[in-house]
Every structure is written in structure tokens, then in C-alpha cells.
Amino acid sequence: MSALQRLFKFHGGVKPAYNKEASTRLPIAVAPMPASLVIPLHQSIGGMPRPLVAAGEKVLKGQRIGGADGNVSSAIHASTSGTVVAVEMRLMPHTSGLSALCVVIEPDGRDEWIARQAFEFRSASPGQTRDFLRDAGVVGLGGAVFPSHLKLNAGKHGKLDTLVLNGAECEPFITCDDVLMRERAEAIVNGAVIMREILSAERVLIGIEDNKPEAIAAMDVAAAEANCKAGDAAIEVVSVPTRYPAGGAKQLIRVLTGIEVPHGERSTDYGVQCFNVGTAYAIYEAIALGQPLISRIVTVAGNVAQARNYEVLFGTSMKDLMALCAPLPDSDRIVMGGPMMGLLMPGDSVPVVKATNCILVGSQALFPPPPPEMPCIRCGDCAKVCPADLQPFEMYWFSRAKIFGKAQEYNLFDCIECGCCAYVCPSRIPLVDYYRFAKSEIWAREVEKEAADVARERYEFRLLREEREKQEKAAKLAAKTAAGREKAAAALAEAVKPAATPEEDAKKALIAAAMERAKAQKQEVHPENTADLTPEQQAEVAAIEARRAEIREMAKPHLRQDD
Amino acid sequence: MLDALLVMALGAVLLGAALGYAAVRFRVEGDPLVEKIDAILPQTQCGQCGFPGCKPYAQAIAKGEAEINQCPPGGDEGIHKLADLLGREFKSLSAEHGIEKPKSVAVIDEQACIGCTLCIQACPVDAIVGAAKQMHTIVAQQCTGCELCLPPCPVDCISMQPIGASVETWKWKYPVFKINSTQRDAA
């Protein structure tokens, strides 16, 4: 650790009781294999992976059971070998208490791996490396579960100044990163070396809060070894002051480098990228050992007799895991994560997933119910502690009044939901609950608006299409009648047109002769009803005809006058 | 006296000319109010308002020919937004135009479908796929839940199914503090 490392400060923050000792007394233990594993398909930010297995299939440990859906997604793997019992909806580790598609595996006890092979990232293109990590299911293990392959991108400059490894672990009770750094420092640093090469980063800063001296010491040794091997001093372990939330990505970047990443921009554009130490370990396992992400370190703490860290296969039920730590009889709830940002679980049957860094067992005595919410007195304490430099009281008023546009204008979406504001609020307002409410309402509206825009577009296109079809039909009809008329006109012209060639003349003459013959025949033939008449009758007919002719003659001048 | 009148008259003529020029020069094509109203409407194109689509209803509102409370899919929230936009008083949804229902999608019972294409012709957003004497199906993502395909179906094989919340679409509830009995006594 360099004594000359200059540290910076982030705004605000609080110092809650850390409660980390209980779970760091014992080393990491491997949780026993449960009777069944319920592996949710959707464990990361982004698209929901497609199931690649069906009930009845045999799977091996590390076999891909969910394929990434698009690039913003991450694959899911079988945590052990066994038989797929079902692919069905199961309760998710989510506050909503809703179910989602899970692959249920019955372990066969052999724990048989797929063929594992190290990935030669040096001879692969950056795109291939990212695809490999996506298919290895590596996501950020700090809690946000953002697919790591999307972050292993050097940004527009093609190289980074600083790769930050986040070992701050600022939230109370949680110690999974602490023990990982104590026990597996070398693997973490090896992961950092791989990431540094992929990102072509100038240096690596590993930020660890100064309340973890053992972890700092272990990481120092591993970093010195790696530096010695590489012949430079690129990797540096930095002890940062203990203050919640120093482990927020933006906060740690600010403390270590002094860079404040502006709203809506990426840290890579400022030459910095930040990964959790657990993610570095997972990247090492995936690339150097060919093992996809199938387990993680989980802290079990809170209202338990023996708090400890376990290496847990994804899909293990929280109930099985808690049972190892002997929860006290007055336990009444399970929180995934810490007391500041954790999510209340709908029950103990939910599985451990990639986002589960801690299982915090709660009770009335340990976490008493919040006292009644009082009106905001505009003291401004929340703004003093906000590590994101926001005005929490403004966001609170607008969220409470459901004026979401205004809340957004106060940069609601820059809120990291760290809970500092609610922690210091003298009126005990559950501020973060209001922000979460407002954020999910805004997202829902956004989705609705997009759907409405698509519907409008499709409706307008349909109207356009109907109009076009009508016109096409009319045009077709017009063309048809026009063609008919043309044909008639052509026939007429043919009749009027004088014969052009002798052949045609001959034809015409023949036709004329035939017509003459027909006429003559017609004249020869008498109408049948006058053929058998007597001469008197015939004379009568002739007389009548003569009279008719006479009358016609008489009528002619009159008709002409009429004309 | 005359000077003053002349000055005023000259001013009036000049300003009038400027306004007239501006009216021609900065003429707004189309009616921006209709666009704004249309943006609030839910675009289900269901016709429950009595107009053949959301746009015609928006035009009717802009002209003052229709009330703002005729759109059941938009619900009370939509009426509030329209009232804010137009500076009108909020009115609850008019009963004759229908009631606000949970968002749902149409689902064709593919066993019963006879392939008559009548629903395809009725769908305002072309969300039904199929051909004559072939089975039809609904593209759920594009279905607006307008229910216009229900009446033409000769075998009644289309039903509306409400969209349930999933983990991705679930919304955090409005924080409500529960007062239990001891606290109530204390208060």
C-alpha cells in the first residue's frame, strides 16, 4: 500500500454499527448439497435466459441450462450434476412474492463437472472474450448483478487509466467479500490481472475499508506477488476510510481517483471501471479454470446463534442455508442483503441466487418496527448525508404527491437507494420506500407509453394500408373498364378501316360474296305462315301491304317536320 | 389632437401588419393540441368513446365536441391528465362508455378457431396472425386489449385474459404506515 496515495472524499454518508465481527470468526465453509436445487432462469439485469433443458434430462455440474437472451443478458448453469425434475414457476427471492421460471434439479450426489477448459483470452478477440463471459454467466456480485461482459469494454478511448476493484463492503453485517479477500486473495488478484489485460488498464486500485485489516494484509501480499511477477507496480491495495456507502461504485471511484462521474455518463469515458472483488474472483474462475459461475460466498448473519460465511451453490434454499447457523426462535423475517439496502424475502423457501450476498435473519428485537412516520420538518439532514449529492426531501415531496415528472427533475434516478437519508431522518420517514415507489411507477409509465406509441404506429399503418388497398382496387377496376373500352374501340376502327392488302381484299370479297348468297337465300325463302295461303288471301295481304306503304309515304313529310 | 390620432392610427397599422406577417410566417401546420391529447390517450383504438379510434376522439375533444371522460382504458388517471392539459374540471368516467378494466390481452382458443379471418379484419393494430381456413393466433405483445375481435368471432373462441404482474413488471406499493393498536392507544 502506497503511503502517498492521495484519497478524496464523497459527500455525506453515515456510520452505522457495523456488526461484522460475528460472521468473520470462522473461515468459509462449503454448504452441504441440498436435496433439490431451484435455479431461477432470470438472475441478472437484462433479458430472461431461455431454458435449454426439459424435465427428465440429465445435467452435469456447470452445464448451461439457460441461454443468454441477446447481449444484455447472462447464461445460467446447473450448480451440480443430477436430473432436471421440472422447469416451472417457483417463488422468487424478490419482495413482490411473485414466481418466475426456475429449473429444479435433483442432485445425483456425484457432483460431476462438465469438461472444463481454460479460455485463452490473449489469443481471442475482445468480442469473443465477452461472449465467453456471457455464456459463463459472470455477473456483478456486489448486488446489482449487471452482466460483467458488458462492463469489460474499454470505452471510446480503447484503454483505461484505472481499474477499480471494490472490496469496500460498507454495509453492516455483510462480510462475504471480506472473507473472500482473506482466504482467496491470490485468485482475486489473478482475476484483476486478467481484467487489466482485457481492459488495457494502466493500473489497478483495490479499495478496501480500513475496518478490514486482515483482508488488506492478505490482498497486499497477493498484490505484491503479482507485481513482482509482472515486474511493475500496477496493482495497489488502498485502505479507504470506513464510512457507509463507501462501497457504492461511484463513491469508491470518487474516493480513489477523485473523478466524479456525471449524471447519465459512463465511468469508462473517464478512464475508470469498477468491479466487485467477488466478480474478479468469478472472472478468474471462468477464464483461468473454465468454471462458469455456479456458486458464491454468502454471509448468514443477524438473529442466528452462529453467523458464518458459506460457499453456496445457486438454487440452494435459504431455509437449508439458515439451518446451518441455528436461527434463534424469535426470528421472524429474512432479508436478502444488508439492513440498509436489503430486500425483504417472501419466505424461507426462496433460493440463493447470484445477487444474494447476505442472508440477514431478523427479529422484532434486532430490527424493531419503525416508529410512526412524522411530517417532514425540512431540517435538511437527508441532503447532508446523501452520497449522490441529491436533495432527498424534494424527491420525497414529489414522490409522495405522485408528481413524478418533478421528482425526476430532481434526478430521482441518480438515487442509489443507499438508505442514508432514511437513516438520519428525525421524522423517521421511510424515504427510500417513496423513491422505490416513484421509480417503479415511472418505469411502468415509460413501458405503457412505449406500448401506446407502438399501437399508434401500427394503427396508423393499418389505416394507410386500408387506404392503399382501396386505391389499388379502384385502379384495377378502372384499368379493367379502360381495357374493355379500348377493345371495343379497336374493333370499331377495324371495321371502318379500308382494306390495306390484296389478301385482305380477297378475304373481304369472299365474305361479301357469302353475305350476298345468304341474302339471296333469305329472299328466296318465303315466310312460312304465307306460303300455303289461297290466292284471294294473298291478294288481301298484298293490298294491306300496299296500303301500309301508302300510309308510310303519307306520313314521311310529317315525320320530317317533326324532326 | 390630430397628431395623436395619426400616431395611434399609424401604430395600429404597423402592429397589425407585423401580426399579419407573423401569422403567415410562423404558421403552425396541423393542430398541436390534437397531438398532445392523442399522446395522453392509451391508443387501444377500441372505439368505446364513440369515435373510430383515439385520434378522432382527440380531434373531437380539441374541437369541444366530446367530453374528456369517455375513455375507459385511460381511466381516471387519463381523465386527470386531460383535465390538466385542457384546463377543464375533472369528471369521473362516464358509465355509458364502459368501465375501467385491468389491462388484458385477447387469447384465441386455437382448438376452436375455424380460420374465418373475421377477427383479423377487426383488429385495429394488426396483432392477429392467420389466413383463411388456417388457425389464427394473437401476438400478445402487440395486443392493446381493445376487445374489438370478440364480437365478430362466429365460434366465440376469443377470450380476454388479464395480464398478471411478473417480477419484472411488479411495482413498489405506495408506502402506507400501519398503525397498530398500541400506537393508536398511545396517540
Description:
With 563 residues, chain A is of the alpha/beta class. Chain A folds into two domains: 22-361, Rossmann fold; 375-482, no CATH class. Chain A has helices at 126-135, 148-151, 176-183, 185-199, 213-230, 249-257, 277-289, 318-323, 381-385, 392-400, 404-409, 420-424, 431-496, 502-524, 528-531, 535-562; strands at 29-30, 37-40, 50-51, 58-59, 64-67, 76-77, 82-91, 99-107, 160-167, 201-209, 235-240, 272-276, 295-302, 308-313, 331-336, 343-344, 358-363. Chain A has a six-stranded mixed beta sheet with strand order 1-14-13-17-15-16. A four-stranded antiparallel beta sheet of chain A has the order 2-8-7-4, with no helix packed on it. Chain A has a four-stranded parallel beta sheet with strand order 11-10-9-12, sandwiched between helices. The longest helix of chain A is centred in the C-terminal third of the chain and has 66 residues, at 431-496. The mean pLDDT of chain A is 91. Chain B is mainly alpha-helical and 187 residues long. Among the domains of chain B are: 32-97, Electron transport complex subunit B, putative Fe-S cluster (3-methyladenine DNA Glycosylase II, Chain A, domain 3), CATH 1.10.15.40; 102-163, 2-Layer Sandwich (Alpha-Beta Plaits). In chain B, 35% of the residues lie in helices and 7% in strands. In chain B, strand 2 and strand 3 (137-138) form a beta hairpin. In chain B, helix 2 packs across helix 3. The mean pLDDT of chain B is 88. Classes of the chains: A alpha/beta (563), B mainly alpha (187). Chains A and B meet through helix 13 of A and loops of B.
